[in-house]
Amino acid sequence: MLKYILKRLGLSIIILIGVSLIIYILVRCMPFDYVEQQVAKLGQDKGVSQEIMDALYTRYGLSPDPTFLDMLKGYGTWLWSLCRLDFGQSFVTGGDVIDEIANHMGVSFAVAFIAIIFEYMIAIPLGVTAATHQYSIRDYVVTVLVMVGISLPSFFLGRVLQKAFATAPLNWFYPTGLENPASDMNFFEKIGDYLRHITLPIVSTVILGIGGTMRYMRTNMLEVLNSDYIRTARAKGLKETKVIYKHAFRNTMIPIVTMMAGVLPSLFSGAMITENVFGLPGIGNWALKATTQGDIPVIMTYNMFLALLSVIGVLLSDLMYVVVDPRVKLS
Predict the structure, then answer these.
(1) Residue 244 carries which DSSP code?
(2) 330 by DSSP, 3-state: which?
(3) pTM of this prediction?
């Protein structure tokens, strides 16, 4: 086991270096950069001299028309800073990138964590009931509903929820933001205010995520129900509920548990579009704004953060599979 983990960690380092190089080159190849945007803002009132432009490019370590060699030099500088645990400062705010990630991560984690709990609580029973009633009206209704949820674009679903529940005549929830600026609320009023703000983003995230988990659960359940030991259990005269929930369901959970280990990136990455629609100050919305502004330190740190979480999630999935199914051996 230890040898396997060390081997995977070594391979993960190579993967992360390759991913970082690709991301950095793609960022530098964008049709705009941060300096151009700043010059455009300055140019609204007066012309900007070439000296000012050159000074800005030098300050941010950029070049107006970067060659591949310029990109490699910039990547080398960024990688050396990363090795010294220096994640840089945001071009826009001037603050440390790692501090800004920590400030924005809490909101995204809270929404994603609650949404994942509800997603599994809803998707697993739906998958089981669809599999145990295959080709019935119940199966078709569940499948159609989850397919509708999968097919809806996140921005469209968010606007629909805002229109339906955050405007007149219902006005049950707030359409955007995280809290009201009112300072005269007591503790319980603040909790209620917070819940009224994050409910719609959570509902949107749950609806968009249920479909994939439900279909995965249904497929695994059907495969287990067609196994020989299930037919043997039924032949012995066991009750159908005992066959399904004691014998079939436990074995169906093996791939589900390993899949749950892979949700690690989604807990911390944030949902860019959903957070933007609902105006949440989460890490996804923050990274989206940084991308549109050409804030390279933020873009690189955020994407490498996701890449690292993805690598860890895949490794945990492999290890979890061994934990839940001792018959599997790692070599």
Answers:
(1) I
(2) coil
(3) 0.84
